[in-house]
Amino acid sequence: MAIKVEMLRYFVTVVESGSLESAALVLNRTPSAVSMMLKQFEETLGLALFASSRKNKLTPAGQKIYTIATREVAHFEQTIRALSGVAKAVTGSIKIAVTPSIASAVLPVIMRDYIAAHPNLQIEVRDMTSLQVVDAINRQQADVGIACCDDKANLYTHHLFSDRFGFVCRKDHPTIGNKIDEWGRMTWADIQDAYFIVNDLCKFIQDPDFVTIRRKSNLSAPNTASLLGMIRAGIGVSILPELAAIMLEPDLCFLPLKATESKREIYLLSQPLQSLTPAAKAFVGTAEAFDYRAYLIQKN
Q1: Where does the record place the HTH lysR-type domain (predicted)?
Q2: CATH topology of 5-87 equal to that of 93-161+264-299?
Q3: Torsion-angle region of residue 248: left (phi > 0), alpha (psi -120 to 50) or beta?
Q4: Confidence category of residue 93, pLDDT binned at 50, 70, 90
Q5: Do 267 and 155 meet the contact criterion of CB atoms below 8 Å apart?
Q6: Which of 61, 143, 154, 220 has the most neighbouring CB atoms within 10 Å?
Q7: pLDDT for position 65
Q8: Is this structure's pTM higher than 0.85?
Q9: With bands split at pLDDT 50, 70 and 90, how would you rate the model's confidence at 84?
Q10: What's the pLDDT tens digit per position in 129-188?
Q11: 240 in Cβ contact with 225 (< 8 Å)
């Protein structure tokens, strides 16, 4: 017969309680049931654990077994608590991949609610481009992502919000900076002669007039921090979604386009829900319940 955890638990309880009767009360079993379990344990080991039938004194072998059994019972109970915690999303870990603008503007308020509900989780946040977010989810290097997504095959996706595009430039830019008062009236024609810096989000804009501008550009800066640094240095102008503009330095400005069907569509991404850990499922629920429209209106 194999040694069972219950054998160890009954044995430890009898030793610590001092008698079969006291142990039976602790275990909520009859004294005869406890005695039977101890007999099976001794037969399995081939050792006598108690020096008397009253079960109040251990043999030398029983002392050694008690030391081991105490440790193993404590370890088993700790394992059960850990498993229960993970199952209830009380403990565990989660890796979240997001774009820089999401990381700085939206994720903090989502995380505030998530951490309040799950304070003991280990959380790792990585910011990267949208393409890298999707790749991280596909490779299972991240549990949940928030980004643009063209290829949604085999992934769970939930649309969170739309983010309009606009020009980003220095406030003193010679051709655009003087049009700061023309909020919402800018067109592609306004940057035809400006030095344009391409970034990763440009591929989401399919307006024919913009495609021509993008093809003429000979400078690309996929990283948002690098892009803004070049704009701040007066090298050129670019286009970004409005959410990214919330965090602009005072010397830069964001001018939304007058008319374009192209917007950045932001999705929550993960592997299929049934395969997620409870911690990841809990984050999905928190992210989907957040009122993005109200938040974006407030920020603007």
Answers
A1: 3-59
A2: no
A3: beta
A4: confident
A5: no
A6: 143
A7: 92
A8: no
A9: low
A10: 888 999 999 999 999 999 988 777 789 999 998 888 888 999 888 877 666 666 567 888
A11: no
Homologous superfamily (CATH) of 162-263 is Periplasmic binding protein-like II (3.40.190.10)
Q: Place 120 in a pLDDT band, splitting at 50, 70 and 90.
A: confident
Identify the DSSP state of 14: H
Place of tokens 């990841």: 280
**pLDDT, position 198:** 94
In sequence order, what DSSP letters do the residues of 34-62 get, joined into one string?
A: HHHHHHHHHHHHTS--BSSTTS-SB-HHH
**Type of residue found at 126:** R
When pLDDT is cut at 50, 70 and 90, the band that residue 98 belongs to is very high
Domain 93-161+264-299 listed as CATH 3.40.50.300: no
What is the torsional sign of CA 185, 188, 190, 194? positive
Which of the 8 DSSP states describes residue 198?
B
Q: How far, in Å, CA of 284 to CA of 144, rounded?
A: 8
Task: Locate the domains of the chain by residue range.
Answer: 5-87, 93-161+264-299, 162-263
Under 8 Å CB-to-CB from 280, ≥6 apart: which residues? 94, 143, 144, 270
From CA 273, how far away is CA 156, in angstroms rounded?
7
d(CA 95, CA 127): 11
Q: Which pair of tokens denotes residue 204?
A: 């989401």
The contacts of residue 68 (CB under 8 Å, 6+ apart) are none
Gap between the Cα atoms of 227 and 206, Å rounded: 21
Q: What is the mean pLDDT of residues 55-66?
A: 89
**Gyration radius of the chain's alpha carbons:** 31
